[in-house]
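Problem 12. The chain below contains 209 residues. Write out its predicted structure in token notation.
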Amino acid sequence: MLLPLLLLRWRPMTERPAGQDPTSPEEGGDDPREFAGSAGGAGSAGGARGGAEGNGQSHGHDGALDDEADVVDAIDEEDDEEEDDEEGLESVTVEITGLSLYTHHGASEAEREVGQRLVLDLRLDLGEADATATDRVEDTVDYAQVCQLVALIAQQRSHRTLERLCATIAERLLSEYELEGVWVKATKPEPPIPLPVEGVSVEVWREPD
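Solution.
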């Protein structure tokens, strides 16, 4: 009874229609070659996509580097232009040192009445001055005229403090000349104090409003 049962189970698996190649796939079955071709095509497509993505990433990276290089070049060019501009700038300063005048300034009434020697130092910042090219006194500040003006201011009236005297001189110089700034220093070589000192001084720096 076992033999017929085995034959029944085995016969449908081995019987094929007449004329069919035993190596060909059955109807409705899948051809292994199709799987191989499909797998190969998928692999090729995946490789192509991977290559394209790799190329895209490579091109994107190169483009980012080019942009960064352009930015760096632009910054370097701006720095070079600023350095050239700074090198092209010109500033002129006129200094007057040791202008000695007999004046009547002081906190005490005796100083204002008797008077004493006062030494003035000045620095005038002109900025650019055409005189560097034209060699004309008219294109700069005439320091002889400045000395005459300062002497007039310092001697025409009395001030209790050197601070006020220096501020008055600075304000007048700024109103008379086109200056970027002015520095005034007033020194008393022989101040009326009961201690040995070489001098006392006050400095004031002013810029135009």
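Discussion. The longest strand covers residues 92-103. Students who got a different answer should revisit the alignment rule from Section 12.3.
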